[in-house]
Amino acid sequence: MTEVHRRAEETGLVSGASVKDAWERFVQGEDDVRGVRPEIAISWHRSRDQYRVDPHLSEAPVAVAELAHPLEHDVVFAELGFCSASMAHEVAKVGGVVVIADAAGRVLSEWGDKATLSAAHGAGLAPWFCWSESAVGTNGMGTALGTYNPVVIRREEHWAQAFHDWNCAGVAVRDVVSREPIAVLNISCWRSELPAAVRSWLYNAATHTDRTLRTRARDGGAELLAAYQQARARSLDPLVAVDTSGKVVLADEVASVLLGVPSNTPAIDPAVRWIPQLPEFMHAARFASKQARYDPNWSGSTQIFTHLTADEPAPIGIRPVFLYGNLVGHLISFCASDGEQLPQADASSALSTARTRTGSDRVVGVRDNRTVLVRNPEILLAEAADSDVWLSTDQGRLRSAAAGLDKLDNELAGAGFLRVHRRYVVNLNRVREIERRDKGELILVMDDPDGTTVPVSRRNASAVRRALGI
């Protein structure tokens, strides 16, 4: 797709006829998606092949149940409510409605033009109805929950035919630590075009909320460091402080070797925290977060394989850390603990496959209007560029369908890939040479015909040396 065509389509200047024709072919089982934006084509594939959503459903389903959420998510709902109320008058003037939904796509509240609200209620666009992609297919809210950018869904781009009279735009607000969605803000117009300023409205609302979340995450990082120092003064057992997603905030020298991360390098900012390449460790930390959010007195224990304990698992104890009643992370010590044992399905059964784990064997990429399945050995590296992730492969350069480099890094954990830089994940099996520059910087030379070079950041250098045995 040319840049001219892309811009024209995004601004609504391209006729929807080609999209309508593609939709009719696609729902009949064909894969021809000419004239459809790549992100829409990928969403259609999920709607049809993964979620099996009926394209002829007449309205969104009622949400199955009210999902419990952490108290800190109320801050996000309140912030978005304030932003929505401030823009509702402008949206109503163009016949639109503003909607807030939670991470499950369950509508919480809405404001806007009365006539459009009436039409919205007839389609189930109302509180307590579910608009996740798995429930209704491609739509502004559900599809936005799967990406990091504002999403515009125009008329026939909606998966369900009943919503082809709607133009919608949504943006998800994500936890700055886990990168999981918390809520989504959506603007919809019925039988009329979206206002020109819709992207900036959504972007400003998401940015305002994200700023609040980042401040809270840094405060949480500082609290984790303080708790780490207090625990360090009481015990000499190997110790690491992690956030709620399992990313390392600070590790001592022994724990850093076990996890393959730098030692004594504080990371208050969530953007620079380490992701240990140990899936079972990350799983244990995330399980602990789920438990501790609803039971502040919870503590846990389990066993994991580490980089130094390949033949026998190492015991760990997990103790949650809170700030003003909100969970901010955990202190994990490498020693026997009397905390609650993690369930068999979450810990012990996973341990038996730890050493044979190979991760995902394929990655989904996009080229123009085509979805491309790339085998892991064909991938040289993944590179973050703005909000997109690009794959350098034997099939050429592809845009990854993964929403962010962190997510792709997690998907490839245990499959021979390593995060070597804030912007790069590389296939270690495709590294041909390692260059050392004058100031000690490491440069990886890949085995493609062009000899692509990848910089290694200083904080990742020790993990790269260990992984490559240099």
UniProtKB/TrEMBL annotation:
GO terms for molecular function: DNA binding; phosphorelay response regulator activity. Pfam families: LytTR. Residues 368-470 form the HTH LytTR-type domain. This is Fis family transcriptional regulator. Coiled coil: none annotated.
